[in-house]
Amino acid sequence: MSKFKDNFLWGGALAANQIEGAWNVGGKGLSVADVATYKPDLDVSDYAGHNKVTSQMVEEAMTTDEIQYYPKRRGIDFYHHYKEDVKLFAEMGFKTLRISIAWTRLFPTGEEVEANQEGIAYYKSLFETLKEYNIEPIVTLSHYEMPLALSVKYNGWVDRKLVDLFVNYAEVCFKEFGAYVKYWLTFNEIDSVGRHPFTTAGIIPDKCVDYSLDEAVYQALHHQYVAAAIATKKCHDMIPGSQMGCMLTKLTTYPNTCNPNDVLLSLERNLDNYSHSDIQIFGKYPTLYKQLLKNKGIVVKMEDGDEQILKEGTADYLAFSYYMSRTESADPNKEKAAGNTIMSVKNPYLASTEWGWQIDPVGLRISLIELYDRYNVPLIIVENGMGAVDQLTEDGKVHDSYRIDYLRSHIEEMAEAVEMGVDLFGYTSWAPIDLISVSTSQMSKRYGYIYVDQDDLGNGSLKRYKKDSFYWYKKLISSNGEDLD
Fold first, then answer.
1. How far is CA 438 from CA 33, 34, 388, 457, in A?
2. Could you state, in order of their start, the residue ranges of all structural domains in the chain?
3. Does residue 97 sit in helix, strand or coil?
4. In the annotation, is 312 catalytic?
5. What's CA 461's distance to the chain center, in Å?
6. Cα–Cα dist 206/213, whole Å
7. 254-264 tens-digit pLDDT
8. DSSP bridge partners of 10
């Protein structure tokens, strides 16, 4: 008998900016993702390098139609292949698909009075296709694809104006797509503003003239918390029975040793990680978080009523990504390991992927237990997977046993957490089909159950091929997580 609920949501997760392509089709405007360049020489020890954005880089991107070195502009052409791709997801037995809406397909600059009808028509057709196959959509409103115009004009979410602009965009989504979508998410990995401020919040560091980058990050975060809370309340009002979640990058951190200094450092990292979901689930700033800001000399500008807004717009569930754990040490000379746009101390007990991400299935069980014990709200894992170089054989096969091993080990730990009493209602692996990676904009870093014939420079037929993991995941879903062989 399966340990998972009968209506457990098995599926996959995607982001519009990494799959859709068609960057200048159907009235779409430029997003921050359209500035991201292919970085073949980015060392795995310098993942922060993927986010070194300047005003000059943005200006250059705005004056070119180049797509070879701006890979997110082409994606995998999901915009034109979505019916074919959804059919493949349905063949696997997907119960759900997590996707995002590209803000710039509806509002090209973010400030238009009326929404772009071509963009609305595209997403309605996508949702109709999902409905045809009984696949429940989980929709992220902002997944690293905010309008570039708002970044250039206002330095992104540093400006309070973006709260109203986002809420307006969200209301249009609820009005137009509410009949199709029950489960929503506001911001993808909201905690990532500090790790990559441009990608997540449209902050261009050289525009931080009258304030520091740190001040910009915390101000932008506050504006996103407020916008999320307002959008959550409006979602409930406009779509009866809807559920709005918040999303966290779960960065479970271990001390490298039992040295109290290592333990203290890992505690600080974990508290910082939790603070973002604390604000959105408990509806208030944690006391220690407020003291942290004070100690940093940072004053977050709040308007009258902001605290009440946070209190009244709390999330219904917690969604999180989990790829790896991290380890911290007070010793600066410890060997480092790469991760999900972060660096940490290498854990000698764990294996690593080709991109240096350490593989820790037990860490997922630990994360589930900690999150549920802290928040006591339903949980869903909305990203989990491994990037690898896949080889397509002459007969159109991909033998990715390494991916199956990774996913199996993590799902086994999920089952153990559920047996302990954790309320887990879904799992959407990242990603069900190959796409453009976030950090390096590579195609060769593949995650999917479905291989897409395209290389890092955009060469290829875009033909889709089923990998061995496709059939494995199909079997797993049909058994509700029981058959892991």
1. 9, 12, 14, 15
2. 9-478
3. strand
4. no
5. 27
6. 9
7. 999 999 999 99
8. 427
Residue 147 has pLDDT above 60, yes or no: yes
Whole-prediction pTM:
0.95
Mean pLDDT of 188-200: 96
Cβ contact 398:448 at 8 Å = no
At position 307, the amino acid (one-letter code) is E
Can you tell me the distance from the alpha carbon of 447 to that of 432, in angstroms, rounded to the nearest whole number? 7
Sign of CA dihedral 116, 58, 159, 292: positive
Q: pLDDT per residue over 346-402, tens digit each?
A: 888 888 888 888 899 999 999 999 999 999 999 999 999 999 999 999 999 999 999
List the structure tokens of 58: 């943005």
Rg, C-alpha atoms of the chain: 21
Q: What is the DSSP string of 446-482?
A: B--SEEE---TTS-S---EEE-HHHHHHHHHHHTTT-
19 close to 434: Cβ distance less than 8 angstroms? no
Report the CATH architecture of 9-478: Alpha-Beta Barrel (3.20)
Q: Where on the phi/psi map is residue 122: left (φ > 0), alpha (ψ -120 to 50), or beta? A: alpha
Separation CA 443–CA 454 (nearest Å): 7
Catalytic residue among 383, 416, 419, 482: 383
